[in-house]
């Protein structure tokens, strides 16, 4: 099976982002509908759709 390099997936659960020093790249772990956990930026919320790199399972960007 050949997967596309990018897939749009829905966030099933996401903890609230913690306010504070976010000068650098701050991430949190969310669970997508497949059950996999992915590190994403703090602004991602439950129900958001995100684009994931299927080669390594990393977050690329928030989908429109």
From TrEMBL:
Quote a single Gene Ontology cellular component term: cytosol
* Keyword Protein biosynthesis annotated: yes
Gene3D superfamilies listed in its UniProt record: Nucleic acid-binding proteins
Q: Which InterPro entries match?
A: Elong-fact-P_C, NA-bd_OB-fold, Transl_elong_fac_P/YeiP, Transl_elong_P/YeiP_CS
Cite the PROSITE patterns for this sequence. Answer: EFP (PS01275)
Which keywords does UniProt give here? Elongation factor, Protein biosynthesis
- Where would I find the Elongation factor P C-terminal domain in this sequence? 7-62
Q: What family does the entry list?
A: Belongs to the elongation factor P family.
Spell out the protein name for this chain: Elongation factor P
Give the species.
Answer: Candidatus Berkelbacteria bacterium CG_4_9_14_0_2_um_filter_42_30
